[in-house]
Amino acid sequence: VTMNEVTTIPVAGARPYQVVIGHDLRDALARLVTTADRVAVIYATPLQRYADRVADVIRDGGAAPYPIEVPDAEDAKTAEVATRCWDALAAAGFTRTDLVVAVGGGAATDLAGFVAATWLRGVPWVAMPTSLLGMVDAAVGGKTGINVAAGKNLVGSFHPPAGVLADLDTLDPLPHTELVAGLAEVVKCGFIADPEILTRIETDPVAATDPAGPVLRELVERAVRVKARVVSEDLREAGPREILNYGHTLAHAIEQVEGYRWRHGHAVAVGLVYAAHLARLAGRLDEATAVRHTSVLRTLGLPTGYRPEAWPDLLAAMRMDKKVRGSALRFVVLDGLAQPSILHSPPEQLLSRAYREVSE
Ligand SMILES: NC(=O)c1ccc[n+]([C@@H]2O[C@H](COP(=O)([O-])OP(=O)(O)OC[C@H]3O[C@@H](n4cnc5c(N)ncnc54)[C@H](O)[C@@H]3O)[C@@H](O)[C@H]2O)c1
User: Using CA positions, which residue lies closest to atom 39 of ligand 1?
Assistant: First the structure.
């Protein structure tokens, strides 16, 4: 593909939509806003300038933009901020044929999608993810939500967007650590479904973090294809979608123990190495593939280990995870490269032996 070509990846479901990936997606945006009279642009503070340009496209298309600035990162995902957004939609006289556009990282798209899901029991929305994690994960799949005191993402709704526009130009000002953290989810997609992702990163890890270059673009496209394929088969997370949780059981526990001060992608990186060794020690995954987890993540500068003394807290947190069905622990593991399966109720001794692999 050349710089100004766009790539379109379909997501199936009751209301199918497309993920559009490319540089400068103003034309694609203009096409999505044609049916609305009013368009709310919900954006995270650091994305002000980009949100202004989005508003210009909306105005040029003949609709009225209503910019709504929300606090940065997780501070956006609160009931209080959602209430402010609903009040703003009410003040603008928003109807069911109007549109919400979300501009920002995964936190902003989760909040804006939730506001769109709940206003008048659901108005259409378009996600414009501006972080790598948002592009390959948060904005694709239709899960929206906010946090409450009891935990992250406990209130939410499945509300697929009318479209996802991943404008690679927005990645230029994204802090390097955020970009690299997002790559952990890309690596996950490589191990569960598309090993070519791993080869690309191993061949040229520096190019993999260059937002202007073709390698990162290809990685975004490949990771989105993996997620799009899986969620197309399983819109509401009843079955195959569980494989996207690879590495996330320990990752969620680390995030909780860290009080959510760790980047999600960093926790996922450690969780991937853990899941790989769990599968190896259970006799399901070959040693070379397990070790490859550590090497590819390290190449990118992602963490692959965690504190030994944290194990009891991590185990307790994993047993509390909302994705645990009943009380038995379930892990997504690999039986081989790109062969995800489930490990049911592994014995505690196996769990702690695998933890030694990420803590010594
Ligand atoms: N809905 C889902 O399926 C799903 C999946 C994965 C994650 N999530 C959610 O996504 C969130 C994490 O997403 P995230 O990692 O994007 O975090 P984030 O939204 O907090 O963004 C990280 C930081 O980068 C900044 N940023 C984003 N784009 C930028 C840009 N182009 N230039 C400069 N700064 C920019 C943000 O403002 C923020 O400070 C979490 O709340 C998580 O629960 C949701």
Answer: 73
